[in-house]
Amino acid sequence: MAAILHALQQELEDLPAQERRIAEVILSSPSDIPGWTINHLAQQSGTSPATVTRFCKSFHFKGFPDFKMKLAAELSHPTGETAYQDIVAGNSLSKIVEAIEANHLASIADTTRLLDLERVGKAIELLCAARRIDLYGVATSSIVTQDFYQKLIRIGKSCTAFSDSHMQITSASSLGEGDVAVAVSYSGETPETIDALHCAKQAGAATISLTSYSNNKLATVSDIPLFTSSLEKGMRRGDMASRIALLHVIDILFTGMVSSDFDQFIPKLEQSYHSVQSYRVHNNGGA
């Protein structure tokens, strides 16, 4: 099932009655939707064009044309949920290697098709211009924010990654205009992370979220919501493919930053590299 359809299915019972009817029509004949007009979908669902537009925006699309375009792109590259393989007792090492490779490749491909390049571009602009950057994430998501932190430090950006909820709020409250807060949560429902990003936004900072694709609270709070695939399931996987998907987006943001301001960032990146190399030589006797 495509990530968009998966998200609709997951959120179906929590949608308002009219929006639920729209989701049910879409889920019943998804391949027909790219060829429909907004009026036709409204008629088929017994709603109105305004309700269809509201429905699309609640799932972070610009409107029905944007929804159709992204759904069509996903449907043209079908990926079944069976592509994500869970941990199985007694698997041979070769099977394990194949399963992990398949999961990671599927997660990256699904995430790439979900990316809104306009939003990604705006996020890159904000990060490049930011006076200060706060990164928020707890548990597995803190690994992702730490990775981004190490990248940003190497190009001279003033930033800190916080995994402690109290420190997240403390730092968020001190942000202001010209600062950027980035919050990472695969579920998009981590209370501490939501609170920190909301606090940063109230303080005047621009806010960016990175979550799995769904109608989640963290994405709703942020100025620029970015999404990864939401198809990974299975309690025994340990968030492996989902972590790879999050890191995939982080790498895109970082590479986009360096590429867009190459003359500023590359010298700093090279300087940090040579400094680390010199440190290693000095402390390891040339090893």
From TrEMBL:
Record key words, sorted: DNA-binding, Transcription, Transcription regulation
InterPro entries: Homeodomain-like_sf (IPR009057), HTH_RpiR (IPR000281), RpiR-like (IPR047640), RpiR-like_SIS (IPR035472), SIS_dom (IPR001347), SIS_dom_sf (IPR046348), WH-like_DNA-bd_sf (IPR036388)
The protein's name: DNA-binding MurR/RpiR family transcriptional regulator
Gene3D superfamilies in alphabetical order: Glucose-6-phosphate isomerase like protein, domain 1, Winged helix-like DNA-binding domain superfamily/Winged helix DNA-binding domain
Residue ranges constituting the SIS domain according to the UniProt record: 123-263
Alphabetized SUPFAM superfamilies for the sequence: Homeodomain-like (SSF46689), SIS domain (SSF53697)
HTH rpiR-type domain span: 2-78
Organism: Paenibacillus tundrae
GO molecular function, one term: DNA binding
Source organism, top-level taxon: Bacteria
